[in-house]
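[agent] plan:
  1. take the single chain provided in the ticket
  2. run structure prediction with default settings
  3. attach structure tokens to the ticket
  4. add a short note for the reviewer (M.T.)
[agent] executing step 1
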Amino acid sequence: VLPYSNWETGGICFSESFEALIGGFQAAVWELGKAPKLHRTDNLSAATHELGDGARTFNDRYLGALAHYRVEADCNTPGRGHENGDVEQAHHRFKRAVEQALLLRGSRDFATRVQYEAFLREILAARNRGRAGKLREELERMHDLPLSRLDDFRRERVRVSVFSTLRAAENVYSVASRLIGEWVEVRLYAERIEVYYAGDRVAEMERLRGRGHAAIDYRHLIGSLIRKPGAFARYRYRESLFPSLVFRYAFDALEGRHGGRADLEYVRILH
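[agent] step 2 finished; step 3 output follows
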């Protein structure tokens, strides 16, 4: 939100990650074609970190991204959301506008995410139509954009474990067993991660939200499991080795019929 004209933009966001924050900021300034002198946010962890006694300061990644656009960082006082009144009020009114548009539409169902995004963009455009005059005044006082955008991802260099998994952004992902023991580059986007080995992209998967979660594809593990089926019972993420409820039922049936041999029989089914 620009506080003078109240021009606004937005996008779908699943988490308050650094990538989502900077991706949204970049989308906004490139949509405008100009950059402001100052960017104010609240004290979310993507932009700040705690110093102690409740105080927070901006982190280097956030400051570096804003420096690329010659923008100063600013934030409200912790616990005082009213200091971001323009954006808070705009958010409230935008949600009301979405609710009204959905009621008029008669359905909340969309065939694709692209259709839903187009629906939201129409609402934003309608809300911005009456702001063109003041927006022109604001744009005159803003400065030009740099020649290029920043990468909208963060890189991490990690090693693939003996369990054919890697850890990125405090979550675990499985990869092909041929990568066990190798160092790979992980590119963390707001909604997906990409894995690169020797310069080639070897995997892409949806980024997990939160921390301490795991995305395990049994196809990555089945080669080692078929050689050591006894590891199935002790595998930390064993529940991920049931691709659907049908497989869970099959394993339960195997346990009832074969007892201790159920693991071996089930791993053969997976294979």
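[agent] step 4 note for reviewer: The longest strand covers residues 200-206.
[agent] ticket updated
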